[in-house]
């Protein structure tokens, strides 16, 4: 397995908006304080340019250089940013979006298809090597897991602080979008979901 390619997808620590169950796509919130055992061996991490990913990476990987990539951001929720389900549930466009988020976008925002296309462009900029660690948001992680497993986006879960490890037989298999051969999830924090 020395030829295998390992991709680690870590969801950022929660923010106040996450705790309040708000849509915080491109809103640049800081994470709430959290505890985790740092990994001092990893020297390079890539992820979203938003604070919540940078701050999570700084705690988890204090010796790593962080390569920010704007294309790896969460879905942009447009006019629904920082709103909750309760605030939006009676809006017809929101209800349509819930039923078909792949093709319908929030006002001034992006659909899941738009997000997926953007994330794909970001993935073309991955660092070289046999192991890559990314600190991302729930939407991009769920998309990448679904793609790697050949499953539906809606069936995926990405917990805060979870490390989703995907393995392919080679970097080439990953780049050719083959299905991964191994998938596992482990918590990186004391309580498992920060």
Description:
- With 194 residues, the protein is an alpha/beta fold.
- It has helices spanning 16-19, 51-60, 85-88, 92-99, 112-123, 138-149, 171-175, and strands at 5-11, 44-47, 65-68, 131-136, 162-168, 182-187.
- Strands 3-2-4-1-5-6 form a 6-stranded mixed beta sheet.
- Strand 2, helix 2 (51-60) and strand 3 form a beta-alpha-beta unit.
Task: Walk me through the topology.
Blueprint: E1 5-11, H1 16-19, E2 44-47, H2 51-60, E3 65-68, H3 85-88, H4 92-99, H5 112-123, E4 131-136, H6 138-149, E5 162-168, H7 171-175, E6 182-187
Structural class: alpha/beta
H-E order: EHEHEHHHEHEHE
Strand order within the widest beta sheet: 3-2-4-1-5-6
Give me the Rg, rounded. 16 Å
Strand coverage percent: 15-25%
Uncertain segments of ≥5 residues (pLDDT<50)? none
Given the structure, what is the number of helices? 7
Helical amount: 25-40%
The main sheet comes to:
6 strands, mixed
Count all strands and give the number: 6
Shape verdict:
globular
* pLDDT averaged residue by residue: 94
Gap between N and C termini, in Å? 32 Å
């Amino acid at each position: 397995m020395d030829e295998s390619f390992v991709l680690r997808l870590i969801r950022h620590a929660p923010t106040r908006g996450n705790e309040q169950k708000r849509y915080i796509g491109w809103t640049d919130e800081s994470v709430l304080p959290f505890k985790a055992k740092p990994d001092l061996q990893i020297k390079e991490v890539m992820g979203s340019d938003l604070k919540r990913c940078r701050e999570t990476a700084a705690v988890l990987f204090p010796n790593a250089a962080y390569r920010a990539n704007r294309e790896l951001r969460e879905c942009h929720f447009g006019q629904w940013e920082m709103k909750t389900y309760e605030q939006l549930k009676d809006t017809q466009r929101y209800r349509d979006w819930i039923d078909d988020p792949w093709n319908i976008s929030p006002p001034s925002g992006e659909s899941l298809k738009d997000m997926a296309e953007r994330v794909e462009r970001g993935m073309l900029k991955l660092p070289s090597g046999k192991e890559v660690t990314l600190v991302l948001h729930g939407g991009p992680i769920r998309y990448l897991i679904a793609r790697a497993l050949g499953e539906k986006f809606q069936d995926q879960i990405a917990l805060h602080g979870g490390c989703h490890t995907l393995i392919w037989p080679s970097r080439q298999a990953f780049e050719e979008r083959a299905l991964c051969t191994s998938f596992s999830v482990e918590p990186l924090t004391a309580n498992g979901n920060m």
